[in-house]
Amino acid sequence: MNPIIKITVKNFGEMTAELYPEKAPLTVENFLSLVKKGFFSGLIFHRIIPGFMIQGGGYTERFSETDAASIKGEFASNGFRKNDLKHTRGVLSMARTNQPNSASSQFFVMHADAPYLDGQYAAFGKLTDGFDTLDQIAAVPTGRMGWFDDVPKTPVVIEKIEVVEE
């Protein structure tokens, strides 16, 4: 049985996802560890690009960055061949810098398919429910803040992420 998580987003609803430790064991272990510590509570989805993805898990509502340890990137271009999960609508994947082993807490949920990300980022789960919530979040107005052109004008707050089944 794969772990199931529920992401509760203030004023938007819930998204439920199944995680795949057989595809990305270290990534799933790291994500679940952060979930169990309550790390994501109160953080925001800070990048929203309709027709691409929503990204969160790294900033507070005041746009101050949170800190978590980096992990090894579990994807093909980083020498990790077990992870063949495709970046299709609803897939959860780890954000990172240009450094392949820089993923920590920031993750994104695919709003649409993006096959050019396959093998470049550590996909580790997929929504099983809450696509309506994903679509509502992807539709929020965005603007420029700091380095990003795609920041929600009104914060999209993660109330909590919890493990439903393990």
SSE diagram, text form:
Elements: E1 4-9, E2 13-19, H1 25-36, E3 45-49, E4 53-56, E5 91-94, E6 107-110, E7 123-129, H2 131-138, E8 142-145, E9 148-152, E10 158-165
Antiparallel strand pairs: 1-2, 1-10, 2-7, 3-4, 4-6, 5-6, 5-7, 8-9
Structure description:
The structure is a single chain. The chain is mainly beta and 166 residues long. The chain has one domain (4-165): Cyclophilin (Beta Barrel), CATH 2.40.100. 12% of the residues lie in helices and 33% in strands. The chain has two helices and ten strands; from the N terminus they run E-E-H-E-E-E-E-E-H-E-E-E. The chain has helices at 25-36, 131-138, and strands spanning 4-9, 13-19, 45-49, 53-56, 91-94, 107-110, 123-129, 142-145, 148-152, 158-165. The strands form two sheets. It has an eight-stranded antiparallel β-sheet. A two-stranded antiparallel ribbon has the order 8-9. It is globular.
Q: How many structural domains?
A: 1
Strand fraction equals 25-35%
Structural class: mainly beta
State the helicity in percent bands: 10-25%
Distance between the termini: 7 Å
Number of helices: 2
Can you write the helix and strand succession as a string?
EEHEEEEEHEEE
Radius of gyration: 14 Å
CATH class: Mainly Beta
Strand order of the largest sheet: 3-4-6-5-7-2-1-10
Sheet with the most strands, sense and barrel status: 8 strands, antiparallel
Note poorly predicted spans.
none
Dominant shape: globular
Architecture, CATH level 2?
Beta Barrel
Mean pLDDT: 96
What is the oligomeric state here?
single chain
CATH topology term: Cyclophilin
